[in-house]
Write a structure and sequence with these properties.
Layout (H helix, E strand, L loop, with lengths): L16 H20 L12 H6 L11 H12 L21 H13 L9 H16 L7 E5 L2 H17 L3 H4 L6 E6 L5 H8 L7 E4 L9 H13 L3 E8 L11 H11 L2 E5 L24 E5 L11 E5 L2 H8 L32 H37 L3 E8 L2 E6 L3 H14 L5 E5 L2 E7 L7 H18 L1
Parallel strand pairs: 2-3, 2-4, 4-5, 5-6
Antiparallel strand pairs: 1-7, 6-7, 8-9, 9-11, 10-11
Helix pairs in contact: 4-12, 5-12, 6-8, 6-11, 12-14, 13-14
The structure holds pyridoxal-5'-phosphate.
Length: 477
């Protein structure tokens, strides 16, 4: 018999579940309160140096108190979050999330499911979403889909699948082997498209930026010229990336025309529909994305216009077999079986680079079940109405200049003053906590850019933005 003391319990479960339960209920109540009272707070506030310094702490070697950690979170993290849940948040293109999604995240955390594969119901939930997405975009049976972090990764997967289509699965082993593949996307395409080309070994120069017309749409004549030029030079055009909702101005490429072109030229057609793809959920907006149903693959985010909490990107691929041929990698420790927990082939890990995968499908399933496609479509429509209201207000104010009209949910404008003064107006607006637009450059001018994505934003928030810009602009003169 040893007289050494037994080691402390190795399990990390609480000794006192009752205590944890009480704290857990408080966390839940506080978080719901945070969402319910969102309007009572500023959109964003600068992080005080002392608060930032608290997160340069020493390594926590010894156990600590959960209540104390929660206290630190409440006082140091929550007040200084980015504010994208706030109705005054109009910067970049970010979703607002919902209480329903938050609750689903909590449930998913409890299950701690790994969606890489195997035979369990969480996998069936993701398969359910794949089927729903397939129907939303009118893709055929046999199409495949996968949750990923966001559209950046979803577009990367779209590019890799196109590379397999062009060179066959052998490219995965042999590499490009001298193949000179060329892709084409509008000059207004998101930076993740050249990044995807870079990451796939083709190099970002291998995507040709095609000029856009006055409406921000890829010029089809210029596209045809670029493809012909590359062919004549002995290069191998393989892919056109259409954008449904450019990040700068909300423009939608002529997707039907791109589909026709790709068909005639034998090219793959991928769509970056990060936020714009879900316009199909609004009967009013759907005609604008006509042709989306003809794509070979679509990347989009549930975490933007779908209002699912971060992160919930998705890629849909028409040819599920090609998708699988792009990623499936047999390994002895991942052998599937006909029965038992190792059944359930094909596994999601054969459709993307991730092996371990979280349960993003659950928050999406709860969101779609609870709100239905109609309510989500209506909220998408409403954000476009807000953009039209902002456009009208800008047009009515002599001090303001419209740089890009309301396209979908995005408006770019500026105070009639210098770029530097406009940049300062935006910083001052952020620091005032009234509204949080972002900036971009339109026709060489610095633009104040408002993108309406958050379902909580209302007309009065748009008015607060305009009034704030007018006031700060006048003060800067
Ligand atoms: C947001 C966005 C992306 C990137 O998506 P993430 O989810 O942030 O990775 C790509 N393209 C467009 C048009 C976007 O709006």
């Amino acid at each position: 018999m040893s007289d050494l003391k037994p080691p402390s319990e190795p399990s990390l479960d609480p000794e006192n579940w009752e205590e944890l339960r009480a704290l857990g209920h408080r966390m839940l109540d506080d978080t719901l309160e945070h969402l319910a009272e969102v309007r009572s707070r500023p959109v964003w506030r600068p992080i005080p140096d002392a608060v930032r310094a608290r997160f340069r702490a020493d390594l926590p070697e010894e156990p600590g108190d959960l209540a104390a950690a929660y206290d630190e979170y409440t006082h140091s993290v929550v007040p200084y979050a980015a504010g994208n849940v706030h109705p005054g948040f109009m910067g970049w293109v970010q979703g607002g999330g919902t209480a329903v999604g938050m609750l689903a995240e909590m449930l998913a955390g409890g299950l701690n499911a790994n969606l890489g594969g195997r035979d369990h119901m969480p996998v069936e939930v993701e398969r359910q979403i794949v089927q729903w997405v397939r129907q939303i975009f009118e893709f055929p049976e046999g199409a495949s889909g996968l949750f990923v972090t966001g559209s950046s990764l979803a577009n990367f997967i779209g590019v890799l699948v196109a590379r397999t289509a062009a060179l066959g699965p052998s490219v995965r082993k042999a590499g490009l082997d001298g193949a000179k593949l060329r892709a084409y996307a509008s000059a207004a395409a998101h930076r993740c498209i050249p990044l995807a080309m870079d990451m796939s070994g083709m190099g970002s120069d291998a995507v040709r930026p095609i000029p856009v017309d006055a409406d921000g749409r890829m010029e089809m004549v210029k596209l045809a010229e670029a493809v012909a030029r590359d062919r004549a030079a002995g290069l191998q055009p393989f892919l056109v990336v259409g954008t449904a909702g450019t990040v700068d101005t909300g423009s939608i490429d002529d997707l039907d025309a791109i589909a026709d072109f790709c068909k005639a030229e034998g090219l793959r057609f991928h769509i970056d529909g990060a936020f714009g793809a879900l316009a199909v959920l609004s009967p009013q907006l759907k005609p604008q994305v006509k042709g989306i149903e003809r794509a070979d693959s679509i990347a989009f985010d549930f975490h933007k216009w779908g209002q699912v909490p971060y992160d919930a990107g998705f890629v849909l691929v028409r040819d599920g077999q090609l998708h699988r041929d792009t990623f499936a990698s047999p390994a002895a420790y991942l052998r599937t079986q006909a029965k038992g927990l190792a059944a359930g082939a094909p596994w999601f890990s054969d459709y993307g680079p991730d092996l371990s995968r979280g349960f993003r499908a659950l928050k999406t399933w709860f969101t779609l079940k609870t709100f239905g496609l109609k309510r989500i479509g209506r909220s998408i429509e409403h954000s476009c109405e807000l953009a039209r209201h902002l456009e009208a207000r800008v047009r009515a104010e002599p001090k303001l200049e419209l740089l890009a009209p309301a396209r979908l949910n995005i408006v770019c404008f500026r105070y009639r003053t210098s770029d530097a003064a406009n940049a300062k107006i935006v910083v001052d607006l952020h620091e005032s906590g009234i509204a949080a637009p972002s900036t971009t450059t339109v026709n060489g001018k610095l633009a104040i850019r408002a993108a309406f994505v958050n379902h909580r934003t209302q007309i009065r928030d748009v008015d607060a933005l305009v009034d704030g810009v007018l006031k700060l602009g006048a003060a800067a003169q």
